[in-house]
User: Fold these one by one.
Assistant:
Number 1:
Amino acid sequence: MTQTAETTAKDVWSDGRHVLTASSTRAHKKCPYLYYLQYVLGIRPAIEEQALRFGKAWHRCLELLAGGQSVEQVVAQIDQWYAQCPTHVELTDWHVERETLAAAISAYDWFWKIDPAQVEACEQTFNLPIVNPETGAASTKWRMAGKIDKRVRRGERLLVREHKSSSADLSPQSDYWLQKRLDSQISFYVLAGRQLAGVAGVDYDVFRKPQIRPSMLTQGETKAFVQSGEYCGDRFDVYVATDLDGGPMVSVDTIVADVKLGAAPKPTKANPNPEQPFAIRETPAMFGARLVQTICAEPARYFARQEIARTELDLEQFRHELWAQMQAINDQTLSGRFFRNENACLQKGDKKCPYCSICWFGCEVRISDDGSIIEDLPDGFEIKPFMHEELLSDSSESD
Ligand code: SF4
């Protein structure tokens, strides 16, 4: 069923405890206790992780573009979202995120200007039965639900277009794409899309997040920039003054740049007061200009689309998997016994599961009999009344 203005996700799914989504099944596969915390108790970190925040903002940008806004309007919107740096985020990280979004959406709009597919529907919510593949009978308790980013038509083929951002290598032969053959989220959306509109597969649209950061220019690059005002194809108003300590102060479009002084030169007879050389660090706008240039120099490195098909046999297998997982979740919900997967606590790089402060310190989180109070919950979490925020019609609007 498609969500209409008259119905809201909460009206349709109550608190969402008997709804399986691609995200909730992925959480359960990763760690059943993670599923319990997120989708049974509704506990979420009060502060969103950076990757999640960026992913949501990227989706919002694409929604705005699809809704007919110009790329300039989308960038103006990004400026509004990022006008105020939250206290828990480093200012440089905040600027990098803002510049990355603005550069990426500008380059995306340029790179995918000619889209061979026609968009037929955006942000379509589905709510479907979960069917026992052995008997054909639908579960009376559990439903499958989700929100499809776009439904597109490419020639005769109807596809679900999913937008993602990732830091992985997106080259055509990379493991990233090989893994997608098994990706249950894709199967989830194809299963739903085939029932709703006969879709053939997924048009997977990925943006690879650049891993660069604002960097120091060399003294030579700084000198050239101060003289010309040109940097990575953009022009800036550069003004050099003297600070209170007598050193150089450089403003770039009214933003004061970090300055690093070079070695003091020896005075000579010809030049008794030589100028001390210096270098500046890229301001956010200069970094943004370099980002655009970097992405546009190798756009296929940063933007990729591949059609990922699912055969009837693939879907048949997935129906069995989904039914088995639903039964496991149902059993665990009835018994209240969701086991912990300690191997999922530590993640790639220095990341860790956001619930470590609960699990590692033995907090026994409980719901009271009226279902509203959670006991022994450490600071830094909040409780959501509805378990699947991505299904809420306004979940992707601006903060
Ligand atoms: S901290 Fe570890 S055990 Fe706890 S929910 Fe996360 S992955 Fe599971």
Number 2:
Amino acid sequence: MKKSIFISDLTHIHNGIMAATFPLGASCVYAYAKKELANKFNFKLFKFPSKLNESLTETSPVVMGFSNFEWNLELSYKFAVLAKARDPKVAIVMGGPNFPIDEEEKIEFFKNRPAIDFVVELEGELAFVDLIKKLGDYNFNIKELKKNEEKITNTCYVNEDHLVSGPISRIKNINIVPSPYLTGAMDEFFDHPLVPIVETTRGCPFSCAFCADGLDSKNKIYRYDIQKTKDELEYIAKRVKNISELSMSDLNFGMYKQDLVTAKMIRELQDKYNYPKTLDVAGGKNMPRRIIEVASIIKGWHLGAAIQSSDSDVLKAVSRDNISSSSYKELIDFGNSQNNIKTYSDIILALPGDTKEKHIESVRFGIDNNVSSVRMHQAILLTGTPMASKKTRIEHGLKTKFRMVPGTVGFYKILDKKHLIVELQEIIIGNNTLSEKDYLDCRIFNLIVTTFFNNSQFEEIFSLLKSFDVSQTDFLIYMKDHPELYSDSIKEIFRDFVSETMEDLFVSKDEARKHILSSKNVEKYINGELGYNELMENRISLIKKFDDSCDLIFKSAEGILNQKGLLTPEIKMYLKELECFVSIRKKDPWTDTDKVKSMTFSYDFEAINNAKYKIAPNKIGLFKTSSKFNFFYDKEQKKYISNQVKMYSSHTEGLGRMLAQSDIRLFFRSFSKSI
Ligand code: SF4
């Protein structure tokens, strides 16, 4: 009988599916290993812990390979420990970016996790096959192989306290890797609420210090045959169920000439299958014209640039080159000129060299360039990145704390017992130039930007302020600095946000683990009362308190206009009606989608909507004319909302994630004048 080899890219599932995409990386390793060695071994691929446990209970494989990310290391390691305890002969292999780059730290990693025999660094396909072949040469005697210090491609291990590393090799012709879709390896995942993910290129020419893809060894770009991509896309479109999204793992999509061909293929798919409705892929940092051309072909690719910071010192400290300001502007202007495109920028708070002022200026840079969302991120010290090195920590005085990776705690049955498992991560909450107090102030600002500015949630107000020449960023700061305008419910949400931001953090991994897994707390973490993404969750809380949030933004608008001597009785009257209009369109967006609501207004909101809510102060009177309006969801909106709700209800932080990932303009009721 053939020996079994298991390959797993596990996800936590207790508070919804945490990593909600198809297991692309592991499936490529699986498909390649199967192509090379299927005559000798029986390969199996897993994403869900329960499925792995079923197979593990029946069989003891000779090799267990696991993807190693910060969101699944402990879960995978628990399987590894127990499988090895039952059968010490099973070889445990980890592969993925969550592994240090410093030699001493690598040895420490192995010491802390003695059940791991081998770690594959960089690409997994060649390494995994080489490892299996070499293990075969030693009749799967791990000790003998290590004793002989056998060199294995892209793989390291410890022998007698020192590290043995094999030669680094990247696949130049990645077409030797069979498609995991076309070979049927992914078929079972179409039955789950997972987003399909495809890869058309591998590698990134940039070198950002906070990113594992910035390493020199990954700088060359290799591309799959166009026909393979075409066939994969068609295969996926024919099989997706209740999923509107497609994800691509390319790191600079649109930057290369051949991406135009991919774009045309995706568009053909959209015309034929009405799928994908939205495309999630990182855009390139050069060649804005080409990116624009690509974006004009595909429907629903939201254009943006992950600038992370607009400050040159911060960028230098993380070895990052941003897209030029003129290219950035060109890109965002184009995105905004298209009806079906949202534009965004990503900003990371607390990178080395960051300050409160620099952070706010980075947000201002995005907003002044008219992006529709500024996506806020915390700086996570990812193992395996230069930013996590001792040198960077000391040089920039990084203050860090540990917390649970949202959605990654639960009881898992492994072999005959249930085990409590949690994943932890290290985030930066200050540095030489950013005090903890400033960090917290920036986080409060981030919640305000995320809730009130992003995703066109209150575009009517921001457009109005723009036509009055009031800075939108200053307005957001005004909202932050006027807590007396907050209702009791809003105050409570902000209080919760502050305590979750600063109190659910721990000085060490051990302290975090002890606290989270204590019998007093663990249920709260499992059912999502604690340990969630506080930005996403509190944004949802604010949106749910729609009347209070609406009241806050309208009062703040009146306040800032008054402060600038621009508030007239006419504008006050307009704001009053605009508030009712916004409320009837946007309150309770995913309930009662069949209901038609009506209201009479003394302003022509159809004309105002056509003017994109940019009305000069002296023109407001021109839009007066009393009409009744009906508010409703059209067929396409209903289908989109239903798909998104279904998809995200089974995910960790479902609603928060749904708002972050969806085109929420499709969640706002359509409206027309009643005849
Ligand atoms: S450009 Fe993106 S993928 Fe490339 S190194 Fe920088 S962050 Fe990583």
